[in-house]
Amino acid sequence: MHLVRSIQEYCRHINIPPPRHPHYDIRRFEDNMKTVHTVVAPFRHECYAIALRVAGSNRQVNGALLHGNIFFNSPYQVISWDILPDWKGFYILFDTDFVNGNPLWQHFLADFPFCRTDKAIPFNVPPDLLAYLQVLFEKIYTEYHSSHPDNFQLIYAYTHLLLLYVKRFFEAHAFTGEDLQQHNRNADIQLLSRFQTLIEYSFFHTPQDAALHSPAYYAQQLHVHPNYLNAVIKRITGKTARQLVHQHLLLLSRQMLAQTDKSIKEIAFLLAFREATHFSAFFRKYMQQTPAQYREQHQQ
User: Fold this and answer.
1) Of 93, 259, 274, 299, which residue is 20 to 30 A from 225 by alpha carbon distance?
2) HTH araC/xylS-type domain location, by residue (predicted)?
3) What CA–CA distance (Å, rounded) separates 256 from 238?
4) Are 29 and 87 in contact (CB under 8 A)?
């Protein structure tokens, strides 16, 4: 199955103009209708998406008739659609680099569970909330197309506010249990989502434990064999379980370097590296620069 790895590639894949920003995009459905493929075969992408549909017909979205007016896509979720070119509304699309840039989103999946792959179910919000969410999407759209130097500060703020309002509704209506099982019966997807959430949870609640670097630790917590866990992760994401652990380690590293005054040695300790030199070697392998060089370029 085709895996789309960036927002720019996503736009090419569905036949719409390229994004204005590499890590964040917002579109009006009615603008897309001019060129978008109205029938798209199943594929996966590596981004989060939140969509608000105020009008539009469909034969299927993600394998079923879409009734909800707000719906989500998560990284590696299977996506497909067969729609009529009459949609109106908005969607936003952002990647893990965008998540990494917001200090409020250090525990993104735990804070916003509807963005998890196994909980990304569509639902209907009432008219008053729908109207308010539409205003937020419009504000994001306006800022996205503005030239103000602080426009992304407001985009972060409006997006966070949007997520909080959706979370309030999601929690109030307890979309759990049978609703989620009926929507997503794919055990592999559920295992991936549990693995991703466990990585995030473990580094927050049990830091300084070197076992957190090992996929075997997570396999034990999930009660599966490490080889099975790795095979499932590889099949869905194209990456190994270890690569996903390292991806989260790198995200935390970049956050701490850019957003805190902790020393390199302190960060290494917090991320369960036995030596600061081991952390520096790990960071340089992926970023092609030292932690100190990264901090100098990105710390505000």
Assistant:
1) 274
2) 193-297
3) 28
4) yes
90, 214, 226, 240, 298 from 281: Cα distances, Å: 43, 17, 26, 20, 19
Pairing between β-strand 3-4 and β-strand 39-45 as defined by DSSP bridges: parallel
Q: Which pLDDT does position 293 carry in this prediction?
A: 92
Tokens of 68: 């909800």
The whole-angstrom separation of Cα 286 and Cα 235 is 23
pLDDT one-digit tens code per residue, 27-59: 999 999 999 999 999 888 889 999 999 998 988
pLDDT tens per residue across span 3-30: 898 999 999 999 999 999 999 999 999 9
Tokens of 211: 């076992």
244, 236 contact by CB (below 8 A): no
Structure tokens at 121: 């179910």
How many CB atoms within 10 Å of residue 261? 8
